[in-house]
Write a structure and sequence with these properties.
alpha/beta; Beta-Lactamase; 5 domains; five-stranded mixed beta sheet; 23 helices; 19 strands; about 55% helix
Length: about 800
C-alpha cells in the first residue's frame, strides 16, 4: 500500500512537472525561431543594400548626377550597418562569425572598387571609369559576397530546422512521459482506493481519475497545437524548408520549397534537394537568368518536363524538339503535342520571323553560348502576344560539339502593355511641360504682333496695300495662335468650358456648316439616334475637333466621296459611352500609318499639314474624360470615334442677373505688364476705347500706385507671370488696399485658374486676344458680370 501510494505521488509529481514544462518549451522554441527569422531578414536587407550599392555605382556612369553618388554613399553606410547587426545577432555562433570574418573584407573591397569608379568619373576620366567597370573583378567579388551571404542563410536555415525538429521531439517525449505518468498515477490511485477505502471512497477517487484523464487530453491537444504552430511558422518562411526523417522519407515541405523547384516533388529522396535556388535576385525585383532555374536545369540534365509554368523546349541540331512544357498551351493556345508537329516559327508573327530565326540559328551553330530575344506570336483567342526567350547552347559531353539548345520562354505581354502606358504618360508629361512653356512665350510675342497690327489698321486707310498687308500679317499671327492652341490641346493643357451639349442637335448644325466648308464633291450623311443622352463638353472645342476630323476625311477623298456623321450609345467593358463617329470612303491607312496617326507633327499631307489635327482631337477627348478610337482599312476608308461619357444630369443655363453697374467707358484703369510691347499695345487698346489708363511695368509699382491714395481706380488689368509680385499676388493685395476692385488677369499660360487662387470674381483672359475680346471682358468685369466676361473669351 505504501509502495503504491509512493508510486502514485511520484507519478503525479512527474505529471505536473511535464505539464509545466510544455509552455517553457514552447516559449524557448519560439524565441529561437524569432532569432533565426531576424538573422534571415537582416541577411536579406544586406543583399538588397549591396544590390543598391552596385546599381548606384554603375548608374553613376550613365547619369553622373550627385543624386546617384549620394544614394551610393547612403547604401554603403547601410551595408556597414547590416554587417555590424549580423555580427551582434550571430555572436553565439562561431560558424557565422567566421563567415562574417570572410565577408567583411569582400564587401569593403567591392565598395572601394565602386567608389574608385565614381571618383574617376567625377574627375573626368570616363574611359578609366568604364575600364574599371568592365573588368571581371567586380563580378567575381559580387559572386563571392553572395556565396558567403547564402552560406549564412543556409546555416541559419539549418539551425532553424534542427531547433524546430528538436522542439518537436522534445514535445513528443514530454507527451510520452505525461501519458506514462498518467497511467501510473491512475494505476496507483486505483490500487490505493482498492486497499484503503470502500466503494463510496472509490467513486470519489474515480472522479479524480477522470479529471486527470481530461487534463491528459488537454496536454495532448496543447502538444499537437505546438507542432502545428511550428509547421505554420516554417510554412511562412520565404526560404525553402524540407524535413525528412531518418529513413529518408520527406515528412514536411513548405510552400517556398515547392515554388523554388517550379514543380511539386514530394516523393523523392532527400539527396535530390542538395541544391537550393531563389526565383528572385538579391534585391527582390528581377528574376534570375531563366536558364538557372531548377526546371531548366532538369531539362539540361535530360529529364522530362512535366509541370512547368514557363515554356521550356529542348531543340536538337536538326531542329527537332525533344520536349515542350504544358505551359505552351496557355501562351500559344495549343497543346505541346500540336506544337511538336508544327514548324518552329509557325506561330511567330511574320515581321519577327527573321530575327527569331537568326536567334535559333546562332544557337544551333554554336556561335553563342547564350542568347535572348523579344518577339511576337499569335494566340487564337488573345491575338498578338509578346514573348521573351532566353536560349542556352547544349554541347555533346564527350566531344564538346554543339548538340542543340534549350530555351526558356516567358509571356511578357502585360509587362509590355505597362511599359507602353508608362512611356506614353511620360511623353505626355514632357510634351505638356514643353507646350505650356512655349505657349506662354509664344503667346506674349503674338500678343504684341497682333496688337500692333490692329493698331496699324486703325492708322491705314481701308483698301490700301498697307491695309491689306497688315490683314495678311494678322491672319498669319492668328494661325500661330491656332498652332499653339493645338499643342496645348494635345498636351491636355487647353482651357475648357464644359456645357451640356445635345449631340443630335449639334450634328444637325455641323452638317450645314461642313457642307459649305468641304464643297459639293463631298456627300454628307447623318445617322443620329435622337434619344441619345447629352454630353458635357466644351462646345467650341467639340466643333473644332469635328471640323478637324471632317477636313482630314475630305483630304482622304480627293476625288470625292461620302462623309458620314453618326451618334449612338455604346457600352464596352462596363463603361457607358456616347459615340460621335466620323467616317469617310477615302484611301484609308495601313497599320504603320495608323500606329502614328495621333503622334504630334506626324502628317501625310506634306508641307500643308501641321500634324496636330488628330493629336489635338485625342487630347480634347482625354481631357473631356473620353477616348479616341480609329479604325481604318487601306482602300476602304477610315472611321474615327469620339467616345464621351454621358452628362451626369441635364443642366439648364441660368438666367443672368444684372450685376452692379460700373463705368463702361471713361473709367480709370490700372494696367500692369512687365513686357513693354504688350504694355504699349494693350494700353493703346484701352485708350482708344475711352478708358483713362495708368501704366505700371511691375506688380510692386502697381501696388505702390494703389496704396498712394487719391483718385481710386475702377479696374485692375494685370499680367499674371511677372518677376517679383506676380498678377495673382497683386490681385489679392489690391483687395486689401481697395476692397471690391474689379480684376482682369491676362496671361499666356493655359491653366492659371487651376494653378493659383485668385480673388472671387476675377476674370482670366488668355493671350493672344483681339481688341474686342479685351474690351468686352473689361466691360463685363466693370458690370460685376464675370460670366459675360468669361464667355467673351471663347
Amino acid at each position: 500500500m505504501t509502495l503504491a501510494s509512493s508510486i502514485g505521488l511520484l507519478a503525479t509529481a512527474l505529471f505536473l512537472l511535464a505539464i509545466t514544462r510544455l509552455p517553457h518549451q514552447q516559449r524557448e522554441a519560439s524565441r529561437w525561431v524569432d532569432h533565426t527569422l531576424e538573422v534571415l531578414a537582416r541577411a536579406a536587407t544586406l543583399e538588397a543594400d549591396l544590390a543598391t550599392v552596385t546599381s548606384e555605382g554603375r548608374g553613376f556612369l550613365v547619369d553622373q548626377t550627385t543624386d546617384s553618388a549620394r544614394r551610393f554613399d547612403t547604401a554603403a553606410r547601410l551595408v556597414a550597418g547590416d554587417l555590424a547587426a549580423l555580427r551582434v545577432l550571430t555572436a553565439d555562433n562561431p560558424v557565422q562569425q567566421r563567415a562574417l570574418d570572410r565577408l567583411d573584407p569582400l564587401v569593403m573591397t567591392r565598395i572601394i572598387a565602386l567608389r574608385e569608379i565614381i571618383e574617376r568619373a567625377q574627375a573626368g576620366d570616363e574611359s578609366g571609369a568604364m575600364g574599371l567597370a568592365r573588368t571581371p573583378r567586380g563580378r567575381v567579388l559580387t559572386d563571392q559576397i553572395l556565396t558567403e551571404v547564402e552560406g549564412m542563410r543556409a546555416e541559419e536555415q539549418r539551425l532553424l530546422t534542427v531547433r524546430s525538429t528538436a522542439a518537436l521531439r522534445g514535445a513528443h517525449r514530454t507527451m510520452i512521459g505525461v501519458t506514462a505518468c498518467a497511467f501510473i498515477m491512475a494505476a496507483s490511485l486505483f490500487i490505493t482506493v482498492a486497499l484503503l477505502v470502500g466503494r463510496t471512497r472509490a467513486r470519489a477517487l474515480l472522479t479524480k481519475l477522470r479529471e486527470s484523464e481530461r487534463r491528459l487530453r488537454t496536454a495532448a491537444a496543447e502538444a499537437a497545437a505546438l507542432a502545428a504552430e511550428r509547421e505554420a511558422t516554417l510554412g511562412q518562411l520565404t526560404e525553402g524548408v524540407i524535413v525528412a526523417d531518418r529513413a529518408g522519407r520527406i515528412v514536411f515541405v513548405n510552400e517556398a520549397a515547392e515554388r523554388l523547384h517550379g514543380v511539386k516533388r514530394l516523393h523523392v529522396t532527400p539527396g535530390e534537394y542538395g541544391e537550393t535556388h531563389d526565383l528572385l535576385t538579391k534585391d527582390g525585383c528581377e528574376p534570375h537568368p531563366p536558364l538557372d532555374l531548377p526546371l531548366a536545369r532538369a531539362v539540361l540534365r535530360g529529364e522530362t518536363v512535366t509541370d512547368a509554368r514557363w515554356i521550356v523546349p529542348r531543340v536538337g541540331l536538326d531542329g527537332a524538339r525533344f520536349d515542350v512544357s504544358p505551359a505552351a498551351a496557355r501562351v500559344f493556345g495549343a497543346s505541346p503535342e500540336a506544337l511538336l508537329e508544327e514548324e518552329l516559327l509557325a506561330r511567330v508573327v511574320p515581321e519577327d520571323r527573321p530575327n527569331t530565326g537568326a536567334f535559333m540559328r546562332r544557337l544551333l551553330a554554336g556561335e553563342v553560348e547564350e542568347d535572348s530575344i523579344l518577339y511576337r506570336a499569335t494566340h487564337p483567342a488573345r491575338g498578338e502576344v509578346w514573348l521573351e526567350a532566353t536560349g542556352r547552347l547544349l554541347r555533346d559531353p564527350a566531344t564538346g560539339a554543339p548538340g542543340g539548345y534549350i530555351a526558356v520562354t516567358r509571356d511578357v505581354t502585360e509587362r509590355r502593355r505597362l511599359e507602353e502606358t508608362l512611356r506614353h504618360g511620360q511623353k505626355m508629361e514632357a510634351i505638356g511641360r514643353i507646350a505650356a512653356g512655349v505657349a506662354h512665350d509664344f503667346n506674349n510675342i503674338l500678343q504684341s504682333v497682333m496688337g500692333g497690327l490692329e493698331l496699324v489698321l486703325d492708322e491705314v486707310e481701308t483698301g490700301t496695300p498697307a491695309h491689306g498687308f497688315a490683314e495678311v500679317a494678322i491672319r498669319a499671327a492668328s494661325r500661330g495662335a491656332y498652332l499653339t492652341h493645338h499643342l496645348l490641346a494635345y498636351a491636355r493643357k487647353q482651357v475648357l468650358s464644359p456645357r451640356v451639349v445635345d449631340l443630335a442637335a449639334f450634328i444637325a448644325e455641323m452638317r450645314t456648316f461642313l457642307a459649305r466648308t468641304l464643297g459639293p464633291h463631298i456627300a454628307i450623311e447623318v445617322c443620329v439616334d435622337r434619344a441619345t443622352p447629352p454630353v458635357e463638353v466644351d462646345p467650341s472645342q467639340l466643333q473644332t475637333a469635328v471640323l478637324n476630323l471632317a477636313i482630314n476625311a475630305a483630304h482622304a477623298m480627293p476625288r470625292g466621296g461620302t462623309l458620314s456623321l453618326g451618334v449612338c450609345e455604346e457600352s464596352t467593358a462596363g463603361q457607358h459611352w456616347i459615340v460621335l463617329a466620323v467616317s469617310d470612303t477615302g484611301v484609308g491607312m495601313d497599320a504603320a500609318t495608323l500606329a502614328q496617326a495621333c503622334e504630334p507633327f506626324f502628317t501625310t499631307k506634306g508641307l500643308e499639314g501641321t500634324g496636330l489635327g488628330l493629336s489635338m482631337v485625342q487630347g480634347f477627348a482625354e481631357q473631356s474624360r473620353g477616348r479616341l478610337h480609329i479604325a481604318s482599312t487601306p482602300g476602304e476608308g477610315t472611321t474615327v470615334e469620339l467616345r464621351l461619357p454621358p452628362a451626369a444630369a441635364e443642366a439648364r443655363p441660368e438666367a443672368r442677373q444684372p450685376g452692379q453697374e460700373g463705368p463702361l467707358a471713361g473709367g480709370r484703369v490700372l494696367l500692369v505688364d512687365d513686357d513693354p510691347d504688350v504694355l504699349v499695345t494693350t494700353g493703346a487698346f484701352l485708350d482708344r476705347a475711352g478708358f483713362q489708363v495708368v501704366r505700371a511695368s511691375s506688380g510692386d509699382e502697381a501696388l505702390a500706385l494703389l496704396a498712394r491714395g487719391g483718385e481710386r481706380f475702377d479696374a485692375l488689368v494685370s499680367d499674371y507671370a511677372m518677376p517679383g509680385l506676380n498678377g495673382a499676388a497683386l490681385a489679392v493685395e489690391s483687395q486689401a488696399v481697395q476692397p471690391g476692385l474689379p480684376v482682369l488677369v491676362i496671361t499666356g499660360f493655359a491653366d492659371v485658374k487651376e494653378a493659383v487662387a485668385l480673388p472671387e470674381g476675377t476674370v482670366v483672359l488668355h493671350k493672344p486676344f483681339p481688341r474686342e475680346h479685351l474690351i468686352t471682358a473689361l466691360r463685363g468685369v466693370l458690370r460685376r458680370d464675370t460670366e459675360a466676361a468669361d464667355q467673351s473669351l471663347g
